[in-house]
Specification:
The complex is a heterodimer of chains A (196) and B (84). Chain A is built from eleven helices and no strands. By secondary structure, chain A is mainly α. Chain A has one domain: PhyR, sigma-like (SL) domain (Butyryl-CoA Dehydrogenase, subunit A, domain 3). The longest helix of chain A has 25 residues. Chain B is mostly helical. Chain B has one domain. In chain B, helix 1 crosses helix 2 and helix 1 runs parallel beside helix 3. The longest helix of chain B is centred in the middle third of the chain and has 20 residues. Chain B is elongated. The chains are: A mainly alpha (196), B mainly alpha (84). The interface between A and B is large, with 48 and 32 residues.
């Protein structure tokens, strides 16, 4: 038996892994795609990110314990893939963490000439609601915690693990992000019949 | 009427924690005892709750295409085939 054969999963293992993959990981694909599109503003790049996330999850499925939090695991993989994509874009060979990406992204946004801007109009055409526009105008770190908490319903602890920040930072980012959103959306929310 | 020990700033911080499901039963009980004791905080609580519902309800959600799902499945089958 070759070394490759020894390390490869058997047919039974593959069938079991595929069953776990289909029942516990694939059901989160819409949530992942939604997260990816709010990170990238671009359908093609969001598709690539989600595909990369699932391929990585498949390669490491042996380390995934069935019945545990597959959704949080996938979101963490996608967040890391997003960081790696930025590392390639920025051509920076050194270690990059989420905070660096946030700073890089915000600097790009600030100049008004970042490559994300090229796709922003198309993206807003896809999700052209007032709430979406307000959310997507937030810096990526604030946008991320709102998406993870208010849209996906992750706990503070799960968000802290996905984004690699302390729980206190999750709370403070959420507080600031919601303050910014309220500033932009209060009049609209009131018009739509919500209290303000 | 505000209770003797009521702290509006602390109560305000707790509103988000409650709405985000971060409290256990005992913390929830203490939170409601506090928020129901102050009309200003009760009003703030209703506003925050309403805003959270508003964001969740009004946020358009983008769904993955069928092509994306079939591409992933096909790559996995290729991967399995290579390993067999």
């Amino acid at each position: 038996m070759s070394e490759n054969e020894q390390n490869s999963p058997s047919k039974d293992e593959n069938a079991r892994n595929e069953a776990i993959f289909n029942s516990e990981l694939i059901p989160h694909i819409d949530a992942l795609f939604n997260f990816a599109i709010h990170l990238t503003y671009d359908e093609e790049r969001a598709n690539d990110l989600v595909q990369e996330t699932y391929m990585k999850a498949w390669r490491f499925i042996g380390s995934f314990e069935s019945g545990t939090n597959g959704k949080a695991w996938l979101f963490k993989i996608l967040k890391n893939a997003f960081i790696n994509e930025y590392r390639k874009q920025a051509k920076r060979p050194t270690k990059v963490d989420f905070e660096d990406v946030v700073k890089y992204h915000d600097a790009e946004e600030g100049t008004g000439v970042g490559y994300l801007d090229l796709n922003q109009d198309i993206f807003q055409g896809m999700l052209g609601d007032e709430v979406s526009r307000a959310l997507d105008s937030l810096p990526v770190d604030f946008r991320t915690v709102v998406l993870l908490c208010d849209i996906e319903g992750f706990t503070y602890e799960e968000i802290a693990k996905i984004v690699d920040i302390p729980i206190g930072t999750v709370r403070s980012r959420l507080h600031r992000a919601r303050g910014m959103l309220k500033g932009m959306l209060e009049a609209y929310a009131s018009k739509m019949g919500y209290k303000n | 009427m505000r209770g003797i020990n009521h702290d509006c700033n602390k109560c305000e911080e707790q509103i988000s924690s409650y709405l985000d499901g971060a409290f256990n039963e005992e913390q929830e009980r203490q939170f409601f005892a506090s928020v129901n004791n102050c009309p200003r905080c009760a009003e703030k609580f209703e506003k925050e709750k309403s805003f959270k519902v508003f964001i969740k309800k009004k946020m358009p959600v983008a769904n993955a295409s069928r092509d994306l799902i079939s591409n992933i499945r096909s790559r996995i089958h290729q991967d399995n085939f290579r390993n067999e």
